[in-house]
Structure formats: structure tokens, C-alpha cells
Amino acid sequence: MNAILAAGDFDLSEEAPAKINLALHVTGRRADGYHQLDMLVSFTRHGDRLAFRAANHDEFSLSGRFGPLLSVEAGDNLVLKARDLLRQAAHAAGFDAAGVHIHLEKNLPIASGIGGGSADAAATLRGLMRLWQLDLPEEAVKAIALKLGADVPMCLASRPLVARGIGEAIELLPAFPSFPVVLGNPLIGVSTPEVFRQLSRKDNPPLLFPSQMPQGQGEWIDTIKALRNDLEPPARSICAEIAVLSGLIESQAPILTRMSGSGATCFGIFADTEQAKTAAASLHRQRPDWYFQVTETIAGEA
């Protein structure tokens, strides 16, 4: 744990798990320009971490490997936007929402397709709900999350799920298993709008499951293999490093390799944790300048 967070100076903390798109199907486009998506989403034990404490006035601080790369300007930072929107809702509902010092330990690469900013915003909502002892309706909190971004309602749940629409229609998967995974990123940002612009077809087949929902790791792996990420081909055309990264992970003999979200993060699912650790160590040796992380996905809560 970061020394700043370990010092006990904060009242409470919240994890902000990385979001992995195990599959992402682009099925259409709405009149307002938003793309219709079908997504199979899981979250990992690795991610950012936020800490909160009551303060006389609002403060925000950063640490972690990628903290120096993150803007602290309110207009750009989803953590501060989440704080301000939740405070507005709290005041409107008659709650106090006093000053707060928020500390973000930024462990996930920026603009990497694994929901870092959205996960941070969701963790901010969860943390401040606890710190401020807010009793807001669940739907009101979800509405704030959606206002912050299409991925934030998913990150608010941080459990295996299927998301449809622009990400707001969520179905939790309580029986979804955990998988050992290795995350990799070439530390090159990829523009999500540009990836969508390069998408050759925007009315792809939807995400469909077998008539009976998969059970256990083996059936879920077979199901995931039959799905796809429609954003991977255009992302590869924009960022050649994605193909190199995917090939490196594939060389470690994972069960499955795929890109997450709009990239550039790719992941490999491995048979067990030891294989994942061995793969991550090998990848670190081959590309010490890139980001590799061994972790596991969070299982459903059956």
C-alpha cells in the first residue's frame, strides 16, 4: 500500500478496480451520436485506490505510478466532478456535505481502456456516501454516475455484469467465476472517439449467450471465446503497438488474449495464478518500459 494511505491519516478508503471488457459488441448508433453497445464486463483485484477524510475545505492529492500524469484541474478530473455532483444532490436532499480531502493512488495507466477514470469516479461516489453518511435513493446515485460517464454505473457495481445500451442497462452475473489474468499496456494513449470513427461497421451482431447461462470457468471460457471486441481492429489500425502487445501476451500460452475497451490495454486469461505470474515476469523482462500486471478478476456474489 502507498505510504500516504498506510499512515492512517484518512477516515476510510475505497478500491477502484480496473474494468475489463471481456467482450464488446457495437450493435448500433443512436440519433444523439452515442453508440449502442453490448458488453461482458468483469473487474480485477488490481486498480486505483482512494482515501477520504473530513477537512475544513476541499483538498485533492495524488500518488502512485501514474499520478504525475493526471490533471488535477476540476474540469478534467472525474473524481472532483463526482464530488461536486454528489454534494449538490446531498444538499438538495437536506444532507450536510462538508469539506473533504480526497487522495487518489493512481496505479492504472491513463486512457487505457480499463475504466480508470470511471472507476475512480465510482469509488468517489461510494466513499463519499459513507463519509457523509448519505441516505440517497439508489436510482439517484445511479443517475449521478451516468451523468459522469457511460462506464461509471458499471464501475459503481464493480462486479461481473452484462451492460447494454450506452452502458446504463446493467444485469449482474452473480455466478460468474474468477479468472487469473495478466494486463498489459504499451503506455500509449488511444483516443476512444477516434477508434469509434475508424469503426467500419456500427450494426454488428449483438452479444448472445447460450439458451442456458454458462456454469463454471470452462463453460464461461468457451462462451467468451465465441464473443469479440469490435473495437480491436480499428484500435490496432491506429496503434500498431496493440498488435505487438497482443502477440507478446499470446506467446505466454494464455487460454485467451483480447483487447479491453477501446485499448490499448490487452489481457490474457491464464489457467492458474502461477502461470499468470510466470507470464507477467517474462513480459516484464521483454518490455520493462511497458505496463504489465498480474491479478485476478472479481467473482460474482452468488
From TrEMBL:
Residue positions binding ATP: P109, I110, A111, S112, G113, I114, G115, G116, G117, S118, A119
Catalytic activity: 4-CDP-2-C-methyl-D-erythritol + ATP = 4-CDP-2-C-methyl-D-erythritol 2-phosphate + ADP + H(+)
One Pfam entry name: GHMP_kinases_N
Domain GHMP kinase C-terminal: 226-285
Family assignment from sequence similarity: Belongs to the GHMP kinase family. IspE subfamily.
HAMAP family from the UniProt entry: IspE
GO terms under biological process: isopentenyl diphosphate biosynthetic process, methylerythritol 4-phosphate pathway; terpenoid biosynthetic process
Molecular function terms from GO: 4-(cytidine 5'-diphospho)-2-C-methyl-D-erythritol kinase activity; ATP binding
Keywords tagged on the record: ATP-binding, Isoprene biosynthesis, Kinase, Nucleotide-binding, Transferase
Active-site positions on this chain: K19, D151
EC number: 2.7.1.148
Classification via InterPro entries: GHMP_kinase_C_dom, GHMP_kinase_C_sf, GHMP_kinase_N_dom, IspE, Ribosomal_Su5_D2-typ_SF, Ribsml_uS5_D2-typ_fold_subgr
Recorded metabolic or biological pathway in which this protein acts: Isoprenoid biosynthesis; isopentenyl diphosphate biosynthesis via DXP pathway; isopentenyl diphosphate from 1-deoxy-D-xylulose 5-phosphate: step 3/6
NCBIfam families from the UniProt entry: ispE, PRK14608.1
Task of the protein: Catalyzes the phosphorylation of the position 2 hydroxy group of 4-diphosphocytidyl-2C-methyl-D-erythritol.
Protein name per its UniProtKB record: 4-diphosphocytidyl-2-C-methyl-D-erythritol kinase
Record domain GHMP kinase N-terminal: where: 77-157
Keyword Ribonucleoprotein: no
